[in-house]
Specification:
single chain, Nuclear Transport Factor 2, Chain: A, 38% strand, NTF2-like_dom_sf, SnoaL-like
């Protein structure tokens, strides 16, 4: 029997996948749709983002501007998500995952894709249920700098 929590978890996973699909496509409009909007988006409880190595960004405008900058300076990016876990608490959902990232470095010649580089980031994505559906409220990414016991 499917419960409302099961349905919500599927919806949250879809919203999380939409975040990464928008980033891969370089689609700022789609990314904008993923983030919380309205009255709460720019107050202290609103959109919050920490990209690896960046300071805390608060407010929808600052968060979306950061993604626009990232997209403008990234020729190619692909995410392979692993260790995806969803936890629900009423109208809030916590998604933790590992972002296995493949991206194109700077090309030597115009019009070519540069060398591919990989990296891993552990991400925490916090979603809120809104009238429009589940929307990203906070993203925090931390680079994985060491190998785990499975990789030694």
């Amino acid at each position: 029997m499917t419960t409302s929590d099961d349905i919500a978890a599927v919806e949250v996973e879809a919203a999380n996948a939409a975040l990464y699909a928008a980033l891969e496509a370089g689609d700022l409009d789609a990314l904008t749709d993923v983030w919380v909007s309205g009255a709460d988006a720019d107050d202290v409880r609103g959109a919050v983002c920490v990209h690896p190595g960046w300071p805390v960004l608060r407010g929808r405008a600052s968060v979306l501007r950061s993604y626009a900058l990232i997209m403008a300076h990234t020729e190619y990016i692909q995410f392979f998500l692993t260790d995806v876990e969803v936890e629900l608490a009423g109208d809030v959902a916590l998604v933790t995952c590992t972002e296995n990232i493949l991206s194109g470095g700077e090309a030597e010649e115009e019009g070519e894709l540069g060398p591919l580089v990989g990296g891993r980031v552990v991400a925490t994505n916090l979603f809120r249920r809104t009238a429009e559906g589940w929307r990203l409220w906070s993203h925090h990414g931390s680079p994985v700098l060491t190998s785990g016991p499975d990789e030694e």
